[in-house]
């Protein structure tokens, strides 16, 4: 009887001792699987973050490239419009200068020759009359220097507008010389223009 009891006690003690390693082994396997799952998730998260960072960096690079391209395009358009504006401005300026020179030439031509049409309609105004001088007639040409006696103030035409003569500049006077009219630089005594047979 005592032997049976002792054998039962030994069996009861041996069963937990054999069960403990099995339980510990199962717990160890579960812990290892949990650790592997944790590492897997951590690696997956790290890869996701790396992809997101790389995608964001690539997107940022694309945005910067687009911005640079937009700036270059804007600068090209600005330079193009500026060149076009300058070209158009120069064209208009040339046209304005050409028109101004044309009108000025017309005015000069009219001013230089207005007396002709006026004389044809007012012949009595241009009659020679009784005009005398203490010197003989000379056929003067433009550019020659003449003596003071030929352009003294008594021979000035004081109302050139009446005969439609062109206006004079500084130090210039219209002077009558018999039937001719001279435009004289009275400061130097140089004949600037000669209108022969102005009076008749």
TrEMBL record:
State the name under which the record lists this protein.
RcnB family protein
Q: Please give the coiled-coil regions recorded for this protein.
A: none
| UniProt cross-references to InterPro entries, sorted A to Z | RcnB
Q: Spans of biased composition, class Basic residues?
A: 28-53, 60-69, 77-101
Q: Which domain of life is it from?
A: Bacteria
**Which species is this UniProt entry from?**
Stakelama marina
Mind listing the UniProt keywords for this protein, alphabetically? Signal
Matches recorded under Gene3D superfamilies: inner membrane protein cigr
Q: Does this UniProt record's set of keywords contain Phosphoprotein? A: no
Q: What residue range is the signal peptide?
A: 1-19
* Species lineage: Bacteria, Pseudomonadati, Pseudomonadota, Alphaproteobacteria, Sphingomonadales
């Amino acid at each position: 009887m005592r032997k049976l009891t002792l054998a039962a006690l030994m069996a009861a003690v041996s069963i937990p001792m054999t069960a403990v390693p099995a339980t510990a082994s199962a717990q160890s396997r579960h812990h290892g699987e949990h650790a592997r799952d944790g590492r897997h998730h951590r690696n997956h998260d790290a890869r996701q973050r790396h992809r997101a960072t790389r995608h964001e960096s690539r997107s940022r690079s694309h945005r910067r490239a687009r911005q640079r391209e937009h700036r270059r395009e804007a600068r090209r358009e600005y330079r193009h419009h500026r060149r076009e504006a300058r070209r158009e401005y120069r064209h208009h300026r040339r046209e304005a200068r050409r028109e101004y020179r044309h009108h000025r030439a017309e005015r000069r031509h009219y001013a230089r020759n207005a007396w002709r049409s006026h004389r044809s309609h007012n012949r009595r105004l241009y009659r020679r009359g009784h005009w005398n001088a203490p010197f003989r007639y000379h056929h003067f040409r433009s550019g020659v220097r003449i003596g003071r006696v030929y352009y003294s103030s008594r021979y000035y035409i004081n109302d050139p507008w009446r005969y439609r003569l062109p206006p004079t500049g500084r130090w210039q006077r219209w002077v009558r010389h018999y039937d001719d009219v001279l435009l004289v630089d009275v400061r130097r005594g140089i004949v600037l223009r000669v209108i022969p047979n102005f009076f008749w």
